[in-house]
Amino acid sequence: MSRKVITIIILVLVFLLSLWAFINFRYSVKITITPGDAVISVDGKKINKNPTVVRKSKGTHTIIATKPGYFDLNQPINVDKNLDISLALAPLPSPQVAISSLPQFSKVAWIDSTSLVGYNSKDNRLYLVNVQVSQTTPLDTNSPALLTNLFVTNEKVVLFAKASSSAEKPVLKLYDLKTKLVSEINLLETPSSVSFSPDGSNISFLSEIGSNSSNLHIVSLSSAPVEQQQTFPLPQRFTYSVWLDNSTLGLVTSVDAAYANSLSLYSISNHNLQPVSVQFSTLNVSRKTGKIILHGKDGLTLVSKEGKTTFIFPFQESNTTLSTWLSDEEFLLISTDNNQAKISIINTSSGSTQQATLQVPDQIGTLVPSPAGDIYYLTPNGRLTLLPFTK
């Protein structure tokens, strides 16, 4: 065998050994879970030591930690170097606390983390509520009948009621919490619902033009004259709008079929219309970040304000599924079955998931989280109840 052939064989063997070493190289991953007696598994293999050190190849791996009385934690990790990971399980929330001595509310809108405005449909009255001390004060103005939207912005209560018939007009009413003055805004069209911008300075609604186009209407709440309401023609039919930030809206086309609704992002400044590829049933918008969660057939998809989509959580939606944003990054899902509620808290940045099943004495009707992230809900009979998470 010639020296040249031997050299080639050696080089090939060195290459193969290097490739084998690269493929089979393991990084050191130290894992510490609090509390210390939590049950831990990594990639489905149970770990009997905490803290523990495992060796893992480059790529995505999954840590699962459980303990009675705590949320189950599912944490994906990306291994491309030696890691030292510390994770803490979140305690389960305490029993639900009903806010005593309050009227029954069909709608509420938060003013700040401790006070809100509630609407009682039975007496058609509005109430100012301090949830910390259960203090209720009736506001000296009645709500319009058939109240559709209730919102509080810049110390003004905004009330919208759709028209009950073609002969009537919708009502857009503003009540100033400081001055107690009431004003009304006349609308050019007759929307069935309205959407509020994050800073509370504008509302938007849509009107259809035939079957293939729409008009987007934007009304300033600070300058009420009709002539200052803006109208933007749109090249297709949309059903309703949601604000992502003060210059970008999500326009939704609803259809009478499962998971067939569509979303487009619309820029007020340049009138650019960008369709989003994912079809869905419902959506949730974070008023702080403008991020959108779409409930699709196979699970949840995160949509950025720029239109980028990321599938974040496999999930089968049901008629008893409730959802809301908890914070800038965390999203809450609750699936109810009689007196049981399966709770999932999804971190939209890290991909981690906390899950638990809780007993609930009252059926959860509508989630109404406070600005501080406390989870309140209305029961079907209008009782305001706190679901206290330990964050």
Q: What report would you give on this structure?
A:
The chain has 391 residues and is mainly β. It has 2 domains: 3-88, Immunoglobulin-like (Sandwich), CATH 2.60.40; 101-387, Methylamine Dehydrogenase, Chain H. It contains 1 helix and 35 strands. It has an 8-stranded antiparallel beta sheet, with no helix packed on it. The chain has a 4-stranded antiparallel beta sheet with strand order 8-35-34-33, with no helix packed on it. The longest helix has 22 residues, at 3-24. The relative contact order is 0.10. The model has no long low-confidence stretch (mean pLDDT 85).
Shape: globular
Tell me the helix content. Answer: under 10%
State the name of the first-level CATH class of the largest domain.
Answer: Mainly Beta
Stated plainly, the CATH topology of the largest domain is called: Methylamine Dehydrogenase, Chain H
Strand order of the largest sheet: 3-2-5-6-32-31-30-29
Largest sheet: 8 strands, antiparallel
DSSP strand count:
35
- Corresponding CATH superfamily of the largest domain: YVTN repeat-like/Quinoprotein amine dehydrogenase
